[in-house]
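Fill in residues.
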């Protein structure tokens, strides 16, 4: 059934994707694991876009599908974390990238796990991250990007934060193109492929038990 969900999402079949999601939830599958399957499917979609197999309309359809899947999962995820705020995180999709579905999922998961998240939205210039960190006295920044074109803006944003004197601010990155090499190239402190990784990283930085 998990392979069927991956196939349905990556092939842009919304009805089938939602039907399979319902079946998986009824079988008591962990909603976090369902999110992981959706993330893998979105990575495949991103690769198809960058290779020219998919175009902007397909990306928009995939975003709509993932949003609908996430809406089904959210009721099963709410209340899993602390209600007391344990830290503030500035989060956004970097300049040049307009994808928000994956970002929204990570932001949601961070919020239900005890963090106050300042969501700057998409296509966020480096200067806006700097301003938000200063305004909210945040100690953690999250940078999201769906396509490879987001890698340089991630690096530029991290450089801007350091130039502004926020050398003690921790930066985590995530998204389709992100891996160990990208993390090193951008100067980020950590990266993770899933929303649960973001939670683990952030809680570790604020000294909270996972």
């Amino acid at each position: 059934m998990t392979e069927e969900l991956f196939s349905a999402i990556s092939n842009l079949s919304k009805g089938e994707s939602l039907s399979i999601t319902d079946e998986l939830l009824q079988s008591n599958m962990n909603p976090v694991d369902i999110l992981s399957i959706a993330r893998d499917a979105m990575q495949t979609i991103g690769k198809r876009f960058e290779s020219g197999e998919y175009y902007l309309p397909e990306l928009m359809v995939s975003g709509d599908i993932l949003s609908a899947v996430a809406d089904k999962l959210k009721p099963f995820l709410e209340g899993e974390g602390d209600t007391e705020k344990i830290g503030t995180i500035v989060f956004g999709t970097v300049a040049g990238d307009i994808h928000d579905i994956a970002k929204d999922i990570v932001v949601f998961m961070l919020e239900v796990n005890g963090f106050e998240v300042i969501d700057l939205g998409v296509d966020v210039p480096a200067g806006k991250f700097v301003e938000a960190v200063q305004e909210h006295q945040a100690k953690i920044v999250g940078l999201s990007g769906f396509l490879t074109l987001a890698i340089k803006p991630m690096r530029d944003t991290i450089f801007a934060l350091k130039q502004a004197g926020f050398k003690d601010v921790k930066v985590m990155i995530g998204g389709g193109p992100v891996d160990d090499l990208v993390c090193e190239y951008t100067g980020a402190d950590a990266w993770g492929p899933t929303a649960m990784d973001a939670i683990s990283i952030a809680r570790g930085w604020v000294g909270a038990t996972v």
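The CA atoms of residues 184 and 190 lie 9 Å apart.
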